[in-house]
Design a protein that fits this description.
By secondary structure, the protein is an alpha+beta fold. It has one domain (2-87). The chain has 5 helices and 2 strands. It has helices at 2-17, 48-52, 56-70, 75-82, 84-87, and strands at 23-28, 39-44. It has a two-stranded antiparallel sheet. Helix 1 (2-17) packs across helix 3 (56-70). The longest helix is centred in the first third of the chain and has 16 residues, at 2-17. The chain starts with a helix and ends in a 19-residue tail after the last helix.
């Protein structure tokens, strides 16, 4: 949790301020098997397209946020500094979910 507070949360807050995301939430889960996560990080985007489509301006904003946080423009050095989290975590993957608001039956 300390790593998330120090490195993930500040980046998420800056991305929200820059309009790249709407919100980010963290969930703790008791895994039922080794392939279940114990921590889930969810990011809310304005639309499904915004989450998936590449946008050069948004990418530049994200790189600028990362450079300020890690105090270097060198993306390889940023990856090296973030690599410590993978020493004690197994990355299980990425999943995309879409919220559906149900209307009452007539």
């Amino acid at each position: 949790m300390k790593y998330l507070r120090q490195n993930v949360l500040p980046l998420a807050q800056e991305a929200k301020k820059a309009g790249l995301t709407l919100d980010q939430k963290f969930y703790v889960h008791v895994p039922a098997s080794p392939t279940d996560p114990d921590v889930v990080i969810c990011t809310l985007h304005a639309s499904f397209a915004k989450a998936l489509d590449y946008n050069a301006a948004d990418d530049a904003k994200g790189k600028d946020i990362a450079a300020k946080h890690w105090k270097t423009l060198d993306e390889q050095k940023q990856r090296d500094m973030a690599a410590q989290r993978f020493e004690f975590r197994d990355f299980l993957g990425t999943a995309y979910y879409r919220e559906v608001n149900l209307k009452p039956m007539p």
